[in-house]
Amino acid sequence: MSDVDQWLSEFDTALRANDTAGAAALFHEESFWRDLVAFTWNLKTVEGPSEIEAMLDATLEHTQPTNWHTTEPPDTADGITTAWIAFETATGRGNGLLRLRDGKAWTLLTALYELKGHEEPKGTHRPKGVIHGADPDRVTWLEDRQREAEELGYSVDPEVVIVGGGQGAIGLGARLRQLGVPTIICERNERPGDSWRRRYKSLCLHDPVWYDHLPYIKFPENWPVFSPKDKIGDWLEMYTRVMELNYWGSTTVRSASYDPDEARWTVQVERAGQAITLRPRQLVLATGMSSQPNLPVIDGMDVFKGDQHHSSKHPGPDAYAGRKCVVIGSNNSAHDICAALWEAGADVTMVQRSSTHIVRSNTLMEIGLGALYSEEAVAAGVTTEKADLIFASLPYRILHEFQIPLYDQMRERDKDFYDRLEAVGFQLDWGEDGSGLFMKYLRRGSGYYIDVGASELVADGKIKLAHGKVARLTEHAVELEDGTTLEADLVVYATGYNSMNGWAAELISQDVADTVGKVWGLGSDTTKDPGPWEGEQRNMWKPTRQDQLWFHGGNLHQSRHYSLYLALQLKARMEGVETPVYGLQEVHHLA
């Protein structure tokens, strides 16, 4: 019997005997159990035997886990044995990843992937699509879809309303569709993908194609590594049609309120000029991390004679050839916009207000993502689903320890590049602990740029550089606090976005937003991610302190992976499955 089989047998025996102390004793003092819905009906990481025992004390009775087994031969390297596992609970089936060190568990990931009795109709269970034979009352697929479109939201209440129609909402909508959860996606733009089409023309995905697949339908093998914005917009529109989503474009959500007595939301929307009241049980805000602009208030904005707008409203560079342009900010959008303006012949100055982490795209792809998300990874048998679980199995508490050596390699590899940037005065950082881009993203969702060319323009002086805070605008210039004056025909505020709970305040109430608290971040006690430690992304993809209100989003990888667990939570509630939540997040910060 292998070490893994021995451990799983002892673990199973302890759980069946309700010996939570015995089960916890199988873990190292420094150990981490990350559960995605299977035990906790939450996204929850517990650390060390005492927290593991407490979690099992609270969850074991209703979870009733059984049938622990490996699904592939374990692998041992550097003293760590890694094993893919599967198991069952009273309500579902799960999988995960176990890492043993000296015979005890170091990390354990348990993830629910389906509910018993509510499996997705796929593979050998796929629908027939048509009933053969003669039937005078036959209803075709098209007729059935037309009936659904006419009834859902009008004479039939949806179970779920998703506010926002970007890639996150579309992926979640597809999951819910396959689970038979009646869902309406409300999007103010006319067509799926418009949120991409309407951005500045140089925008593209900085993440590679292997990282960006949507659920069920992967990009074809000839899809470009980095998707241009209009191409991804067309893909989302196609996907929405093919996955048969009830996507309400040209629909503005005016307000939402929750009735605890009826356990329903009242959502007031305006669809193509028509006022409609929706009454879902569950409300999902999938408005995205980059949806509520953080527009600064600066003296003189009302007297400035040129154009000024937030980066999310930037129309592109075409109208600004030969004109003086000032971009406030130095992260992804600022660099992209500056580069496009320079290409169009504008005189461009970037105002850097604080240090920025820069990593070259090719270097990031090879060193940072290549082991999990690349053509080489696929060839080695690392599917998208496996890659997602491997990444999810590394607890956030120690994830930075795995990231630091990778970014050390990147810094050494591209030393000349960084030296050139610093020589022109660009202020670089590598995160507060040297852990680089992804930890910055998880902690604060900002503060970095994946270089696809703009940094070369900065290093060469083609994009000019200024530093400091903006003191005021005059009729034709931007004045910085140090007295620097920058002539300007255009000012772009690439100043980031507010917390997603700002949408809860705008659509529901400030009280509800405060009940939920800050959305995003880990509690790492680093810049823009205040402590205490949370161990998971705040309020994302899991129950919040407001009944039946959920947040969904993140990058394409996160939206794809975590949409499964959110969809299962919503399906369970629709079907009346008991979902006792363990470790509901405390609220420490309001925004």
From TrEMBL:
Pfam families: Pyr_redox_3. The keyword Lyase does not apply. This is NAD(P)/FAD-dependent oxidoreductase. Keywords: Oxidoreductase. Gene3D superfamilies: 3.10.450.50, FAD/NAD(P)-binding domain (3.50.50.60). One of its GO terms (molecular function) is monooxygenase activity. The lineage of its organism: Bacteria, Bacillati, Actinomycetota, Thermoleophilia, Solirubrobacterales. The keyword Isomerase does not apply.
